[in-house]
Write a structure and sequence with these properties.
Layout lengths: L10 E5 L3 H13 L4 E6 L4 H11 L1 H4 L4 E6 L15 E4 L15 H18 L4 E4 L4 H12 L6 E3 L2 H16 L6 E2 L2 E3 L5 E3 L5 E2 L2 E2 H4 L2 H12 L1 H9 L6 H15 L4 E10 L5 E12 L2 E6 L5 H27 L1 H22 L3 H4 L2 H11 L3 H6 L13
Parallel strand pairs: 1-2, 1-4, 2-3, 4-5, 5-6
Antiparallel strand pairs: 7-10, 8-9, 10-11, 12-13, 13-14
Helix pairs in contact: 1-10, 4-5, 4-12, 5-11, 6-8, 6-10, 11-12
The structure holds nicotinamide-adenine-dinucleotide.
The site of nicotinamide-adenine-dinucleotide has 36 residues, from helix 1, strand 2 and helix 4.
């Protein structure tokens, strides 16, 4: 509903007008708190068409936020439209297809996110960046590096989504309202997602009192594979209703300077004994982005899992940053080597997300994260098999 007494303020830009970007723009517009929502894409006419459509829903939905669509060129033309944005949500990039891991997107999405961030920085140098492109932790680190922004002004969306998925599965299992469930996941958006059972409850009762441990484990596994489950059903793209709800809430917390505490991908500097990495943690969100990382008491097992996730993510983020400095050719070789190793793991453990998360895959992943960059570069890329080509 329109909020005539609430002044609409500021401008938020959403880069990438695909499923995630367009639903995020729509949610942001319907909040009716911004003066303008800008939606951009490189596909000629797509953002303009979607913006026109969204504006035409204003008389029905009763919001007055103006939506502006803008096609951008490869050389950065059109980015003037994002000038003055206080928040920029980066959704540009390919989504997964069935059988792909988020890491399979790294080559193409790293180039896209780098280009986008370089252009955003020129026109919205004061913005808070909310990254959603996958692989999320790596793309968030990359955006921070390319932008040169203070780490507090760059964050990624993953934990809100993983936590929401976990809460929904618990609610469905117990037949209770989704709003009565509190869950939490930390760590990375992927295999090293860290569920935090000690923070999970239903109407204030600890989850462990309501479900046996093996049932909770099943829900955790389904949450960890939550994105893949939807990719497998859709076959042509990935989830966007719950993801866009999460990104829009983060943007709203920034716009409102709310101080809300949310699980986000944020720069960790000493919390939980972890430093120098973008990682899924709880953070207090305000107008300047992350006000502070909120540290909670974790069990020994949870803390160990979080530290393990941090080391896995740190290795990948360092690789990407170093290879970006080395240029496009090096980035391509890195991605090809990574895909070759992923294929070799799949052929040992079976293709597909569920099989690859078995013990054999975990051994493989630990092994990989300990490799140096030169190990990666020395691997022969090899041909990409049919059916696994990126779009
Ligand atoms: N973090 C999360 O929780 C989460 C959840 C779901 C999806 N994702 C990721 O979000 C991204 C977008 O997903 P989607 O479903 O919207 O995909 P999509 O294919 O529907 O849309 C992507 C859009 O990005 C645009 N694009 C590509 N290069 C661009 C550039 N340089 N500048 C501007 N736009 C550009 C494309 O033209 C396309 O319209 C994917 O990387 C996906 O994996 C993340």
């Amino acid at each position: 509903m329109s909020q005539p007494d609430t002044p609409r303020r500021g401008k938020v830009a959403v880069i990438g007008a695909g499923f995630y970007g367009s639903t995020t723009a729509q949610r942001l517009a319907e909040y009716d708190i911004f003066e303008e929502v800008v939606l951009t894409d490189i596909i000629d006419g797509k953002p303009e068409g979607l913006a026109l459509d969204m504006n035409q829903s204003r008389p029905i939905e009763g919001f007055e936020t103006r939506v502006t669509g803008q096609t951008t060129g490869r050389s950065g033309d059109g980015y003037e439209a994002v000038a003055g944005s206080g928040i920029v949500v980066i959704t540009a990039g390919l989504p997964r297809k069935p059988g792909m891991s988020r890491m399979d997107l790294i080559e193409v999405n790293a180039k896209i996110v780098r280009d986008v961030v370089e252009n955003v920085v020129k026109h919205a140098p004061e913005a808070v960046l909310i990254v959603v492109s996958n692989p999320l932790d790596e793309m968030t680190a990359l955006a921070a590096k390319v932008s040169g922004f203070p780490s507090s002004r760059v964050m990624g969306q993953a934990g809100m989504l993983d936590t929401a998925r976990f809460s929904y599965f618990v609610a469905e299992k117990l037949g209770v309202p989704a709003g009565s469930v509190r869950t939490l996941t930390l760590g990375s958006h992927g295999d090293t997602m860290v569920p935090v059972p000690s923070a999970c409850s239903v109407s204030g009762r600890p989850l462990g009192e309501l479900l046996p441990a093996e049932e909770i484990d099943k829900l955790v596994t389904r949450t960890r594979n939550g994105g893949g489950e939807i990719v497998g059903l859709l076959k042509t793209g990935s989830a966007y209703y719950a993801p866009s709800a999460a990104a829009a809430r983060m943007a709203r917390a920034v716009a409102a300077d709310s101080g809300d505490v949310m699980p986000v991908c944020a720069w960790v500097d000493g919390e939980y004994g972890i430093s120098g990495v973008y990682l899924g943690v709880e953070a207090e969100i305000g107008s300047a982005g992350v006000r502070r990382v909120v540290q909670r008491d974790l069990s020994d097992t949870e803390l160990a899992a979080l530290r393990e996730a941090a080391e896995a993510v740190r290795a990948k983020q360092a690789d990407v940053a170093a290879l970006l400095r080395a240029g496009d050719a090096a980035l391509s070789r890195f991605a090809s080597a990574k895909a070759a190793l992923s294929r070799s793991c799949a052929s040992q453990g079976g293709a597909g997300p569920a099989r690859r998360r078995g013990p054999r895959h975990r051994r493989g992943r630990r092994h990989r994260t300990r490799r140096s960059r030169s190990d990666w570069m020395a691997r022969s890329p090899g041909p990409r098999p049919a059916g696994r080509r990126r779009a």
